[in-house]
Amino acid sequence: MIALVVLCLVLLVCWFRRKRSRNDILNYPPGPKPWPIIGSLHLLGQHSSPFEAFTVLSRIYGNIFSINLGSTPCVVVNNLDLIKEVLITKGGDFDSRPDFIRFHMLFGGNRNNSLALCDWSDLQKTRRSIARTYCSPRFTSLQYDMVANVGTDEITTFLHEIQKLPVNTPINIKPLVLKACANMFTQYMCSTSFSYDDEEFRKVVRYFDEIFWEINQGYAVDFLPWLLPFYKNHMKKISHWSSEIRQFILGRIIDDHRATLDYNSPPRDFTDALLMHLEEDPNMNWQHIIFELEDFIGGHSAVGNLVMMTLVSLIQHPHVAKRVQKEVDEITANSRAPSLLDKSMMPYTEAVIWETLRKASSPIVPHVSSTDTELFGFNIPKGTMIFINNYDLNVSSDYWENPNEFIPERFLSASGNVVKPNHFIPFSTGKRTCIGQRLVQCFSFIILATLLQKYDLTAEGKIDVKPGCVAVPPDCFKVILSPRSS
């Protein structure tokens, strides 16, 4: 009891000191008055998503406001001009990431092993440069052709596995979707794939999905690190997931590549390219290689979860599903499976994916100011966490007509081509934009077009998804697949 009282007194003293230091900053953005210890975390708890809370608070304090979350000083930006200022114009001032304990646990004790969660540096710039050719393939490139071939090959296996499941009854389709996505990534990036019955593969795909859900959640310990003892088991669990994934990648992928790598020939794939750079660049080491490969293979979880989110949209809006089916039937004439090369001729299907992303309002990973700087006349001290309220961009009537309705046509021009307005940035923008977004778009398109070609989709009961989150729980809703009669 004495120790608890002393801890509370220490935390109160720290809070009052921080409060005075913040008040001493001239032109600091306005915001709600924080409570001792917890700051304004209680305001976020009043909403189903913290980004909903940010939107409500912006109506009170303006499009840029400050908020203390636990002991962490934060600033929230809510409109397009401010967001571009943070991500583009002054991207160099806001290129760090939050120092959450969870992020360290997920990447071998150092979040800078991750491309998405690291602070910006020359090393990270080099790592992104290596990946760009493979993770952002140009439409006319050999890599894009490879993506198309990989997608077509894996879809055949995916359909074979789907056909083993009962029809017209609720089934858990997510594990199969994730396995298909994982094999697309490993085949494209590592020239290898795995049997859906491979127990190690199944376990690792599940762990990747758990981690994707984990990263899309918020926990009190992120902002109140003194709660860490209460999260001991949780931290141990996520560290175990990451360790198992790493061992799988090393033992089942990298070791085989090293044994057959020809340094005198062009790289066969992304894995070869990483291994070659390891030999050529003295600034790179084994940690950089294995974590970069893990990062990009893990991108399959984003694809699988986007597919599941889109299935929700199609189930909830049957007329949209019917129009997608009509489009795929017209392109394939029911004589072949759809392929990535059909994507440009199926704009409505692509628009459905974009509208799903808009409605999901996938949050952009927070940035942290790497220096003392200024933002629209307000002083921003070094170390301030910056939240990009992508939710407000995606659901505000300031940017969209009838924003609460699901209308894929909003992403189609009068001539029927896909168009994305400048204020739609689901993969962020600037130098820290998601480098793998093209693969997400390509592989999700192939899976969705194939499912809709073969099946009608329904579900039992109402499906609820979390706002401001593109992830669905690892154990989520079931889907009823009914073979199409025509």
Automatic annotation (TrEMBL):
Topology in membrane: Peripheral membrane protein
Binding-site positions, heme: 434
InterPro entries named among the record's database cross-references: Cyt_P450, Cyt_P450_CS, Cyt_P450_E_grp-I, Cyt_P450_sf
Gene3D superfamilies (alphabetical): Cytochrome P450 (1.10.630.10)
SUPFAM superfamilies in the cross-refs: Cytochrome P450
Transmembrane domains' residue ranges: none
Keywords noted in UniProt: Endoplasmic reticulum, Heme, Iron, Membrane, Metal-binding, Microsome, Monooxygenase, Oxidoreductase, Signal
Signal peptide residue numbers: 1-21
Record-linked Pfam families: p450
Top-level lineage group: Eukaryota
Record-linked PANTHER family: CYTOCHROME P450 307A1-RELATED, HEME-BINDING MONOOXYGENASE FAMILY
Family: Belongs to the cytochrome P450 family.
Record function comment: May be involved in the metabolism of insect hormones and in the breakdown of synthetic insecticides.
Protein's name in the database: Cytochrome P450
